[in-house]
Design goal:
CATH architecture of the largest domain: Roll
Structural class: alpha+beta
Radius of gyration: 21 Å
CATH superfamily of the largest domain: Electron Transport, Fmn-binding Protein, Chain A
Number of helices: 6
Length: about 210
């Protein structure tokens, strides 16, 4: 798996949840259609109307999170910076998105489409989380200028080798090779190992 594949999967999912923050700092979540994917440039494109609160939140706050779930129980979460397509390219992109997504002609027929503006996300982080396999599989990737951040837990040098963490892990994501360690790609981040360690040797990874 990689960032490009995850971005392509978002196009197949098509309708995703997109979270922004309003002027009062409150989260707002909407269902948004992914209108176009540029796999070569690692960009997704979508649109909204200038009169919507969503438009203002995109312009003012410069942060957004996209969440999609495939029929195979693959969660793809993208965190990034929404950017408005330059004014001189708006019409070209708007026409292109309507050609690629003809159902939009029923929503905004004829010239009413001109109330819409096109945005894209080209920098950020993607987390892939497959709940349809056992053990679960997860990875994070940066795209554009974004950098993937480590999350979850690690077993520190305070470990006394009792193996309680391994017994408690619901995904069997803890292995032993000279010492106990957590396989990041199979970890749920549930914290059972942290809560049950008698020597408090399991640390949450700090951002």
């Amino acid at each position: 798996m990689d960032a490009k594949t995850c971005i392509q999967k978002l196009k197949y999912i098509a309708s995703v949840s997109m979270a922004t923050v309003d002027k009062n700092g409150c989260p707002q979540v909407r269902t948004i259609g992914i209108m176009h994917v540029d796999v070569e440039q690692d960009e997704i494109y979508f649109l909204t109307a200038r009169g919507k609160d969503f438009y203002r939140e995109l312009v003012d706050n410069k942060q957004v999170q996209v969440l999609g779930l495939s029929k195979y129980k693959e969660m793809i979460r993208m965190t990034g910076v929404p950017e408005r397509v330059p004014s001189e390219l708006q019409k070209e992109w708007l026409d292109r998105l309507f050609d690629e997504n003809p159902y939009m002609n029923n929503v905004y027929p004829d010239e009413s489409r001109n109330i819409l503006e096109v945005f894209f996300i080209g920098n950020g982080e993607i987390e892939y989380f497959n709940l349809g396999v056992h053990p679960i599989f997860r990875e994070s990737y940066g795209f554009g200028k974004g950098i993937a951040k480590k999350k979850g837990y690690v077993i520190s040098e305070r470990c006394i080798g009792c193996g309680i963490c391994k017994k408690n892990c619901p995904q069997g994501a803890i292995s032993f090779k000279e010492k106990y360690y957590i396989r990041e790609e199979n970890c749920l981040h549930c914290g059972l190992c942290n809560e049950n360690c008698p020597s408090e040797a399991v640390d949450r990874i700090k951002q």
